[in-house]
What we know:
Layout: H1 8-21, E1 40-41, H2 56-66, H3 84-97, H4 113-127, E2 139-143, H5 144-156, E3 162-168, H6 172-181, E4 184-189, H7 200-212, E5 216-223, H8 235-247, E6 251-255, H9 272-278, E7 289-294, E8 307-313, H10 317-329, H11 335-345, H12 355-381, E9 386-387, E10 396-397, E11 400-401, H13 405-413, H14 418-430, E12 432-433, E13 435-436, E14 449-452, H15 457-477
Parallel strand pairs: 1-12, 3-4, 3-5, 5-6, 6-7
Antiparallel strand pairs: 2-8, 7-8, 9-11, 10-14, 13-14
Amino acid sequence: MEYAVRGKVVIAADRIHDELTNPQSQPHHLRKKHPFSHIVYTNIGNPHSVGQSPITWPRQVLALADLPNDVGIDHPKIHELFPKDAIERARYIKESALEGYGTGAYSHSQGPKLFRQEICDFIEKRDGLDAGSCNPDCIFMTNGASSAIEMILTALIADTSCGVMIPIPQYPIYSATIDLLGGKKVGYYLNEEKGWDMNTEELERSLADAKAQGIVVNSFVLINPGNPTGQVLSRQAIKRIVKFCAKHRLVLLADEVYQENVYDENAEFYSCKRAAVETGLVKEDALELISFHSTSKGLLGECGRRGGYMELEGVDRDVRDQLYKMASAGLCSNIPGQIMTSLMVRGPKRGDPSYASYQREKKHVFDGLKRRAKIASDGFNAIPGFSCQEAQGAMYCFPAVSLPDAAIRLAQENGMAPDTMYAVSLLEKTGICVVPASGFGQEKGRFGFRTTFLPSEDEMVRVVDAVKRHHEDFCKQFSS
């Protein structure tokens, strides 16, 4: 398996970071001088690692939930340090959701029932569904969305004949896990010229080609908003996808972890659950849908908490029992991640002491991401030889880069993908760490990279300028 997001370029970046921050660790004759002072890690959606501040209220609640009662929620001076709504929520979590056991005990293997009910309430409100449309018994709280994805792929891939349809480009957890489990990757191409949209003809082509090869395709991965592409699919596109999966009896895996990250005012997040309800597929019991969400993205950016969940819709009870067995083998997901998930889906309500500050802090994060998305998209498009679709959502840009023929030949002679060679060069000359587009999959003959736009606005302006200068120098180097 390969996992490009933390692959060859990032390993090189970590080595250079060590050389910059701890030169004494290297023998004097091996010490290298670099034309930059620090590494800019834009390889991974890890917001806090590049300066995003935590939202205060969830951290307050989590701290109080972790503290023993006598120095926390029951301390006589606790109201001098924490707002009333944070104290009350922590008390509810400790006494009701965690049943008085605290954060050091195992929970139910799917997560506490009260937390799962909060997730259901969130889904119903988000999608405009009737109360009771979501069943807490069909919610599994997990260590981020990634562990849920791995669990489902493990259940789906029985042997080497099993195929999973994945977008090209796609987030490497899918390709890596499918390879690890011995399954077959069945790629369907997103249309870059149309803003990374997808069409039914391409889906039918991909499925038919796989069947002709004897692959038993049983599932379909959708990432919306897109990673690495940053697109936000329309309602019509989502409805076409749920109908396609129902028609071909494919389990739909809906990766929706960026649902809060929509910056284009003409776009909106439209869930697969809502599409399935509005097309009548839920009522007809015609679609198996598994949706994923996480605390790592959105506006909380709490990657290290490893909080997330999956919802099962239309999944047979016997299958659910097998998934429960798999969850039970891991005992439960981590409790701080469960608490953070609860706080993500149920924040302070209007009128609570923390409501205004909570909304203000989230807006600050959102507005900053929206500005940086434009800085990156517009900046890359202004570079001759670059083509970058607008980042409508998520945290990434995925520009295509025109490389000189001589550079392509040299990379191939050295057994390296041309955009990996380009990314290594960019790192060594500028200190900017990106992920080669080849690590996500792309059309033959296309080259490029994925970058986040999570660093500060000043840093992103500097990054775009440094990429421009590097590209000019790179092209001159290989044109002479």
